[in-house]
Structures are given as C-alpha cells and as structure tokens.
Amino acid sequence: MTLAPWACDPGQSRGRRHPEPAAPTRTEFQRDRDRIVHSTAFRRLVYKTQVFLNHEGDLFRTRLTHSIEVAQLGRSISRSLQLDEDLVEAIALAHDLGHTPFGHAGQDALDECMRAHGGFEHNLQSLRVVDRLEERYPAFDGLNLTFETREGILKHCSRANAQRLELAEPGGVGRRFLERRQPSLEAQLCNLADEIAYNAHDIDDGVRSGLITLEQLEQVELFQQHARESLADHPGLQGRRLLYEAIRRMLSAQVYDVIEATAAAIARVAPASADDVRASEALVRFSDTMRERSGALKSFLMRNLYRHPQVTQTTVQAKRVVRELFDAYCADPGQMQAGFAARPDTPRAVADYIAGMTDRFAGREHERLTGSRLLA
C-alpha cells in the first residue's frame, strides 16, 4: 500500500540506537514487530491481567489479548488513513510490556513503593523493557527498536523522567515531552485504539463476571443506541448474542468515526511529512459527539465496574502482595533471580523484577516469602 506523506516511512526511519544492517526481506518496522512478538516480556502478557485477576477465570481479557485487539483496531484504521500498519502493530503489541502484575492495582502499589526512588510509570517501564531489560542479543541490551516504535511506546512521561531520558539520549524519545510536541500519527492512533479496545472488552468482561448487567448498560447512550439497533434488525435477540452484536456495532461506529474525524483534521492541517505531524496539534481523534459518548462510557465503567466492591476487595489484596514483595526483596535481594540480585540499584532492580512478573508468579512468590496466600 502507498503511504501518505504524513505517515512514518520505514525507509526514512530515524534508526536504532545501535546501528544494524538492514534486513533483506523486512522493513524496519516489520522487524520491530517481530522482535516484540518473540520477546520474553510479550509472552508474559498472557498471564498479566486487566481488571479481573488471573485466578478469577480463564475467559477474561489479559494484557496479551488486549494488545492483540488494539493491534487489530489500529491496523484497520491505519489502512484507511494510509499510515504504516506495521509500525502501528509494533507499537500496539509493545505498549503494555511494562505493566505490572495485577493490572492498575499493581502499578499503583509499585509506584507508592518507589516514591522515594523516582517512582514507577508503566509507559516508561515498557520503554525500559525494550531498551534495557530484554536480554536476547550479544551486542546490546534490549531489543534495539527504531526511534519511531520507541516513540509510540512512550505514551506518557513525567517531565522529570523526560529530562532524565534527554540527558541519556539527547534529541531522543524524551524530547517531545519537554517541547510539548506530538508523536507520529501511528503513535497517536495506538493511543486511541487502546481506549476503544479496553472500553469494549471491559463491557464484555464486566457482564461475563456478573458485576454489570445489560439493563445497567441501557444507561449508556453509546451502548444503548447499538443495542436497540441490534434488536430492530434481529427481534428477540438476547443474552450474549445481543451483547456481542451491540459491542460489534459500537466498535465499528467508533472506528468509522475516528477515520472520518482524523481525515478531516489532516485535511485541515495539511501536514507534508511525519515531522509536520509532530509539530502540529493532535490529529487522531473522535468527533465531538463520539468523544462525549466515549467519555460517558468510561465514567459508567469507572462507577460500576472498576469501583465495584468485589473488584476493590481484590485490588486491596493485590496491592498488599506487591508491597510485601517489594519490602521482602529490598530486605534480602538474594531472594530475586541472580541478574537482579547482583545489581547495585536495589530499589529499581526490585521494581524491574516485580514489574516483569505474571499474576500467578507474583502470587506464588508472595506465598513463598511470607507464608500467606492472599489470592486463592
């Protein structure tokens, strides 16, 4: 497919931190995607969870299935906008590599533990994974991905951490946060595809768990519209088939809305290159109406699912597991794997070690070190 002028061209990539010969049969972004898929951190995503923890059921989304869904949505949209699909896929598959076990509960707990040591940001951790923590190549640490993929992985970054990144890599992926510039359109697209994906699958998982109902979802205009259209086209539809059809239509509506609104924004700004995109306002977007409806859905999920007493109770236990693991490893680094135990920066080494854990491994390690089993 011919790329638009505003897309990232793999032939014009800003390159890798450690120069390598080009691959004979793959573009630079295809090569990034393949390295991510074969990484240890990517495989671990199958046992890292979103809202529901790993022990709560086999059919709930994990970080792996979520990343695949983001990649699918991203590729569908990027094709219509003539963006580089392989770059979108690489960013989507890597964007959660730095997430801790136990979803946002684990991330929050680890950030609290690291408050005196620079804090913990899962986006920055994803970059650490691909830049430093993966150990697959003889000549360098990490996966040595292109600038464009790394730029997309670093979705958010505090100013303090951006300054540290800039000192280590002048003009690198931290610079845009200091200059308040945008990332590529491919990166912007992954950000929005991430939101679309988790809103949809959290509805599915929430109903599957019994914590939210179809009747409650009737309060949400975005879902209600597509549920009613589904019933109009298929009278008598009910249960999971109604849920799936409404979600399918909702996803399609959001995808088409993003394509239309983003194409209009691109036409108005008329960027001549990917660098023009970076110097512009954010261009990948919903229409005003869809943004409002998507925001209402997020608010509904926050009230009725993420803050549900059953989820909150599990969150409290998960945070305790992470805090007690952190304290135990700081007190005795030798309890970690040798590569982490030998590092001089003990708190950061502990954070890296815990962040790389799956839910089940973290639970087993906690039980081994404390004798207490919190997550049955």
Automatic annotation (TrEMBL):
Q: Where is this region: Disordered?
A: 1-29
Q: Which UniProt keywords apply?
A: Hydrolase
For whether the record's keyword set contains Hydrolase, the answer is yes
Residue intervals passing through the bilayer: none
Domain named HD: residues = 63-199
Q: Which CDD domains match?
A: HDc (cd00077)
Task: Give one Pfam hit by family name.
Answer: HD_assoc
Family membership noted in the UniProt record = Belongs to the dGTPase family. Type 2 subfamily.
Q: Identify this protein by name.
A: Deoxyguanosinetriphosphate triphosphohydrolase-like protein
Q: What is the lineage of its organism?
A: Bacteria, Pseudomonadati, Pseudomonadota, Betaproteobacteria, Burkholderiales
